[in-house]
Specification:
The chain is mostly helical and 67 residues long. The protein is 94% helix and 0% strand. The protein has helices at residues 2-32, 34-65.
Length: 67
C-alpha cells in the first residue's frame, strides 16, 4: 500500500501535464489555423476533456482513499 501511496500522486501529475500539453497544442493550432486546425482541432479538445476527467477522477480517488 505504501508503494501505491507513492505512485498515485505521480499519476495525478502525469495526467495534469498531459492536459497541459494537449491544451497547448490545441490552442496553438487554433491560433495558427489552417489544415492542422481543421483536421485535429476538435479531436484535441475532446482529448483534453477526457484527460481532464481522468485527472479529476484521480484526484477524487486520492482524496477518498488517503484522507
Amino acid at each position: 500500500m505504501e508503494a501505491f501511496e507513492a505512485v498515485f500522486p505521480m499519476l495525478i501529475i502525469i495526467a495534469l501535464i498531459a492536459v497541459l500539453i494537449v491544451l497547448a497544442i490545441g490552442v496553438i493550432g487554433m491560433l495558427r489555423g489552417g489544415d492542422f486546425n481543421r483536421r485535429y482541432g476538435n479531436k484535441l479538445m475532446r482529448l483534453r476533456v477526457l484527460l481532464q476527467a481522468l485527472a479529476i477522477i484521480l484526484i477524487i480517488l486520492f482524496v477518498f482513499l488517503f484522507q
